């Protein structure tokens, strides 16, 4: 990726815990490292295709002077997110806000808070076996596409499959899609859980019926483990109803641990296990 750096942009604003900071104000210094693909601008020498760093400086100035935050952490996190939302050419924002006049009472240079925000490409499995299944899938994808900071890029065909596990229930409709998001894995998981809950009944039984089921399969090439989320999805290599639609849009995608492609995982599963896909 190409990089633009803005160093120590001076901004007088009203952020801080103490009343004198929010009333009187003080100087802040903002530095940003902005990454993206600037190839078209470089080759064409056309300002219309370039990232306007002057506009970005004015945006950061306007953002920080029109708001008051107690914590630098909040100001830094919110501003970095807004830069990605408002400047689509940016893929990654590394932001640092310095506070050289912090009320510490001892000699120092500055206090600063830094954060990194970027766009992520995420592959997701989607399924439903309650009610109008096709409509549930469509509504789920539409809801994700409407979320700030999220964009659905590609959607697979819909496949019918037998239920996974030994729970007596209707057949599923399954698909997969690729999305772009500025959310972290845990933030995206929280959003998906809310969408599943809002969709209606289901999720009361392990491997049971679902109005809407959303599973994160890949998140860039990250390996992520927490109590409630593992990425890549730990059981995807055993699920043809995941791999079949995923292979339609990402047969080339390589598992960051096993280094097998989605197509390889699917072919190995077909050779070793009965399939759940029936259409």
Automatic annotation (TrEMBL):
Q: Which E.C. number(s) belong to this protein?
A: 4.1.2.25, 2.7.6.3
Its job: Catalyzes the conversion of 7,8-dihydroneopterin to 6-hydroxymethyl-7,8-dihydropterin.
Taxonomic lineage is: Bacteria, Bacillati, Bacillota, Clostridia, Lachnospirales
Keyword terms, alphabetized = ATP-binding, Folate biosynthesis, Kinase, Lyase, Nucleotide-binding, Transferase
Residues in 7,8-dihydro-6-hydroxymethylpterin-pyrophosphokinase domain copies? 206-217
Write down the InterPro entries for this protein, in alphabetical order: Dihydroneopterin_aldolase, FolB_dom, GTP-CH-I_C/QueF, Hppk, Hppk_sf
Name this polypeptide is given? Bifunctional folate synthesis protein
Instruction: Give the pathway listed in the UniProt entry for this protein.
Output: Cofactor biosynthesis; tetrahydrofolate biosynthesis; 2-amino-4-hydroxy-6-hydroxymethyl-7,8-dihydropteridine diphosphate from 7,8-dihydroneopterin triphosphate: step 4/4; Cofactor biosynthesis; tetrahydrofolate biosynthesis; 2-amino-4-hydroxy-6-hydroxymethyl-7,8-dihydropteridine diphosphate from 7,8-dihydroneopterin triphosphate: step 3/4
Task: Give the gene that encodes this protein.
Answer: folK
Q: State the species of origin.
A: Ohessyouella blattaphilus
Could you tell me what reaction this enzyme catalyses?
Answer: 7,8-dihydroneopterin = 6-hydroxymethyl-7,8-dihydropterin + glycolaldehyde; 6-hydroxymethyl-7,8-dihydropterin + ATP = (7,8-dihydropterin-6-yl)methyl diphosphate + AMP + H(+)
């Amino acid at each position: 990726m190409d990089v633009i750096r803005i160093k120590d942009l001076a901004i007088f604003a009203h952020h801080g815990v103490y009343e004198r900071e929010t009333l009187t104000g003080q100087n802040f210094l903002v530095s940003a490292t902005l990454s993206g693909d600037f190839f078209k601008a470089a080759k064409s020498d056309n300002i219309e295709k370039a990232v306007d760093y002057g506009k970005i400086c004015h945006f950061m100035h306007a953002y920080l002077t029109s708001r008051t935050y107690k914590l630098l952490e909040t100001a830094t996190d919110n501003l970095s997110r807004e830069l990605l939302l408002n400047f689509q050419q940016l893929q990654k924002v590394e932001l640092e806000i310095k506070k050289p006049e912090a009320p510490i009472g001892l000699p120092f240079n500055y206090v600063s808070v830094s954060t990194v925000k970027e766009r992520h490409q995420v592959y997701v499995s989607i399924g439903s076996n309650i009610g109008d299944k096709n409509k549930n899938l469509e509504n789920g994808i539409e809801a994700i596409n409407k979320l700030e900071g999220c964009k659905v890029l590609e959607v697979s065909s819909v496949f019918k499959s037998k239920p996974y596990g030994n729970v007596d229930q209707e057949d599923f409709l399954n698909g997969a899609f690729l999305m772009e998001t500025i959310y972290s894995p845990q933030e995206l998981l929280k959003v998906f859980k809310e969408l599943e809950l809002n969709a209606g009944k289901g999720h009361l039984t392990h491997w049971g019926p679902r109005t809407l089921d959303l599973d994160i399969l890949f998140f860039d090439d990250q390996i992520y483990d927490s109590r409630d989320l593992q990425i890549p999805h730990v059981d995807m290599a055993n699920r043809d109803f995941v791999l079949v639609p995923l292979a339609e849009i990402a047969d080339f995608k390589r598992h960051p641990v096993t280094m097998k492609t989605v197509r390889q995982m699917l072919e190995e599963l077909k050779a070793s296990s009965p399939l759940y896909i029936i259409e």
